[in-house]
Design brief:
Layout (H helix, E strand, L loop, with lengths): L6 H12 L5 H15 L4 E6 L5 H15 L5 E5 L2 H17 L18 E2 L12 E5 L9 E7 L4 H4 L2 H11 L6 E11 L27 E5 L16 H11 L1 H7 L18 E3 L4 E5 L2 E6 L2 E11 L11 E9 L4 E9 L11 H15 L4 E5 L8 H10 L5 E5 L5 H14 L3 E4 L7 H7 L9 H12 L39
Helix pairs in contact: 3-4, 7-8, 9-10, 11-13
Length: 502
């Protein structure tokens, strides 16, 4: 009986037949896949830069798996059916031509189709040896010993919140396809900051743990820790620099360095935000009230409500935001709340009243003197109802009716650009538990991503007055006009010499 060869040897024989070398990087991946299989690890993630040939390697790994265990069943999932079928077709070609697998090709042509095939095996099974499916296909009823998720995350499946949620929901179906002891193998590169391959949970996206938590990972970015190319024969540093220039930094970092960033160059960068955990402190003394945050006294506040009557998770969101400012011209985004009504209570309390009661509580809890209510569309019916609820809860706050006449995209740009560039916007940690940060990362002018939270915060920022920092300049020596510590007329004291004797 001939000895069963390991995967690196299987790979080397195939490359030799094709007249190709076997790069050290490919040998490393081959050894990793083999060792993980022998160790009994059933959840694997292979991330490697574009152009490495990882899908080709995984196809050869599939052929090697059938060479060792002809009774195994392999399901290939990809972002679209054509991509999954391409891998199945390549594995068929390997089985036909590799000297160690030629005996596995069946005699019946109906078992050798383009999107699925069944090798010669001792047991009769309902499922084929290898089957291709697009991520949107129905896989209910299928069974597999190995599920390969080959580039399931691409821009078309990850460039918006609903698409990312749908992708994750479909991938969770794998648990019902895998037989006990089966293996999941993900292969790909990140296409979003909220990639399913992320190491850390994205709290702002509602995650408490990473989607692939606990998976054994092999990550191979194009440049190593010293800045050297991992495959200098094919990707010398000159070519790498050209790729970066041609594709842009974001795409290069995502597809070649495996960093979770948005492929599109986002206009709003959450990394420019400052964070704080402090809560509002309200105090009274000498018959005067004061409000402070993190030891900083606040001088004004703005609150904006962009209402919507849509049911939860449907249509536009109803968002209220509160922004405070201090005397130094800094802004404090303290709360962003996405309001929803309870459809089960509509028979006793209508949706508009439910929302107005939440807004009244929001104003009371955050010591807000007024709320600007956007009256475009449905909002024009709410001011009277909101004033009634404020009176019912004993909240002393004004309702300012506001009609937005500027395009929403331009309003968001005008509100955020200068503030973010100056690093003048601090955000409470609780805001990260809302969709607001995800809206920032995904937003582009003219795009179709959600922007309800951005719109509400933009309204707050535009309603706040711009303040100059009260840092007086140093006195100029020998200035005949004396110490000029404030530009405002009459703001400084003057000392006059007098020889008057009573």
């Amino acid at each position: 009986m001939k000895p069963i060869l390991d995967f690196p040897e299987f790979l080397w024989i195939w490359n030799r037949l094709q007249g190709l070398p076997t790069p050290a990087l490919h040998r490393r991946i081959a050894r990793w896949l083999m060792v993980r299989q022998r160790a009994g690890e059933r959840e694997l993630l292979l991330m490697a830069f574009r152009g490495l040939g990882k899908s080709t390697l995984v196809g050869l790994y599939s052929a090697w798996t059938l060479y060792r265990h002809p009774e195994r069943r392999i399901l290939v999932l990809a972002a679209d059916f054509a991509l999954a079928r391409k891998m199945v077709r390549n594995v068929k070609r390997v089985i036909e031509r590799h000297p160690l697998t030629r005996h596995l090709k069946p005699k019946r042509r109906d078992q050798w189709a383009a999107d699925q095939f069944t090798v010669v095996r001792a047991t009769e099974m309902r499922d084929p040896s290898m089957l291709a499916k697009g991520i949107g296909a129905n896989i209910t009823g299928s069974r597999a010993d190995l599920v390969i998720c080959d580039d399931v995350e691409v821009p078309n499946t990850s460039d918006s919140v609903p698409k990312r949620a749908d992708l994750r929901a479909r991938l969770l179906e794998i648990d019902y396809v895998l037989v006990p002891g089966g293996t999941q193998l993900y292969v790909g590169t990140p296409h979003s900051y909220y990639t399913l391959y992320a190491r850390q949970a994205r709290a702002e996206a509602g995650e408490t743990k990473p989607f692939l938590d606990g998976f054994a990972r092999l990550e191979l970015p194009l440049l190593d820790a010293k800045g050297n190319s991992r495959w200098p024969e094919r990707f010398p540093l000159e070519r790498i620099a050209a790729i970066r220039r041609r594709t842009g930094n974001n795409k290069f970092q995502s597809q070649m360095m495996l960093e979770p960033v948005n492929l599109a160059e986002g206009r709003l960068d959450p990394d420019r935000l400052r964070f704080y955990d402090a809560e509002l402190v309200y105090a009274e003394g000498n018959r005067m009230a004061s409000l402070s945050l993190d030891g900083t006294r606040l001088v004004s506040a703005s609150c904006w409500w962009d209402p919507s009557y849509g049911a939860p998770d449907k249509g536009d969101a109803s968002v209220i935001a509160a922004v405070y400012s201090d005397a130094e011209g800094r802004y404090w985004l303290h709360r962003v709340r996405y309001l929803t009504h309870d459809p089960a209570r509509l028979t006793e309390v209508d949706a508009a009243t439910q929302l107005c009661r939440q807004v009244a509580s929001f104003l009371r809890d955050h010591h807000l003197p007024a709320v600007r209510l956007e009256t475009n569309g449905l909002g024009r019916f709410l001011p009277g109802l909101l004033r009634r609820e404020l009176a019912a809860q004993g909240v002393c706050a004004a309702v300012i009716e506001t009609a937005s006449r500027q395009a929403k995209d331009q309003r968001i740009v005008d509100a955020f650009d200068a503030v973010l560039a100056a690093g003048a916007l601090a955000v409470h940690r609780s805001v990260w538990a809302t969709p607001f940060i995800a809206e920032m990362r995904d937003w582009q002018p003219g795009g179709r991503s959600r922007d309800d939270g951005l719109d509400a915060v933009a309204g707050c920022l535009l309603a706040e007055p711009v303040r100059l920092p009260r840092n007086p300049p140093k006195a100029v020596p020998d200035d005949p006009a004396g110490d000029k510590t404030d530009w405002r007329p009459g703001a400084t004291a003057r000392r006059a010499n007098s020889d008057f004797q009573p």
